Amino acid sequence: MDIASIVGLIGSIGVIIGAMISGGGLAPFVDVPSILIVFGGTAFTVLYNAPMSVFLGHFGAMGKAFMPPIKKQDELIERMVELSGIARKDGMMALEGQEVPDKFFQKGLQMLVDGADEAKLVSQLNKEIKSMQKRHETNQNCVKAWIDLAPAMGMIGTLIGLVLMLGNMADPKAIGPAMAVALLTTLYGAFIANILFMPILSKLEGYTEYEVVYREMVVTGLSNIARGESPRNIQDQMVANLAPKMQEKLEAA
Asked: I want to staple 246 with a disulfide (CB 3.0 to 4.6 A). Which of 7, 13, 56, 242 is the partner?
C-alpha cells in the first residue's frame, strides 16, 4: 500500500472540504445538475474515446496508484547473482525449478533452461517489455482523458449556466440556481482533473518507468548468464541502476 498516495488524497480533499465548511457549510457547493454535467458528461466522453474493455480496465489500473506491486531491485540482483553461480557450476539445466521473484523473470529463466541463445532471449524479453509499456500507456491515456475533458466539461456547464441566467434576468429567483451551475461546474472540473486524476497519472507513469527499469535489469542479468559471465560482473552491471546507498549496501554484502 502506498501511504503517500492515500494520505495525499485524503489530505487534499480534507483541506478543500474544510475551507468549504468554514465558509458556511457544504450545501452551497452541492448542485445536482452541475454534478451530472461534469461527472456524468466526463465519464461518457471518456467512454466515447476508448473501447469498453479499456474504459472498464483503467479503473483497476488506477488502483495501482494506491496498491502498487512491490518489486525490489536489490533482491532481484541478489537472486540473479545466486542463479549465475549455479549456472556456472552446474550448467543451465540446474536452473530448472529455481524460485524467482516474478513471472517475467521466470519466463526468461525458462528460456535459458530450454536452450535459447542470448539473441533470442533478449529479443523476446524486449518484446515483452514493449507490450507491457503499450498496455500501461493505453490505460494511462484513459486517465489523461479525464484530466483533459473534465475542465472542458466544466466550461460547458459554465456556459449552460450563463445562458440560463441571461435568459431569465427578469426572474430574480432563477438567477441564483443558474449562477450556481455556472460556477460549480468549473469547480468540479478543476477538482476532477487536478485533485483526483492528475496525481494518479503521475504515480502510474512513475510505476511504469520503475517496472521498465526492473525488467531491463532482468534482461541484463539473464543475458549475462547466457554468456557465462561471472556473478561479480553481473552484479556490477546491474547495480548501476540503483541509488548510491543501495549500491554500497549490496557491495558490502
From this structure: 242
Confidence of residue 253 (pLDDT cuts 50, 70, 90): low
Of 25, 62, 30, which Cα lies nearest the Cα of 46?
62
Pair (23, 83) in one structural domain: no
Q: Tell me: do 23 and 58 sit in the same domain.
A: no
Question: Is there a single domain that holds both residue 57 and residue 178?
Answer: yes
Residues 245 and 162 both lie in one domain? yes
Q: Name residue, grid cell 510505476.
A: 207
Give the CA dihedral 229, 235, 239, 245, nearest 10 degrees: -160
- Rounded CA separation 37/150 (Å): 10
Pair (5, 58) in one structural domain:
no
Q: What's the pTM?
A: 0.85
The residue range of the domain holding 101 is: 31-253
Tell me, yes or no, whether 125 and 11 share the same domain. Answer: no
Q: What is the pLDDT of residues 7-47, one digit of tens each?
A: 999 999 999 999 888 877 888 888 888 899 999 999 999 99
Secondary structure (H, E, C), 64-104? HHCCCCCCCHHHHHHHHHHHHHHHHHHCHHHHCCCCCCCHH
Please name the residue that has the C-alpha cell 541484463.
Answer: 220
CA distance 108 to 218: 8
Amino acid letter, 176: G
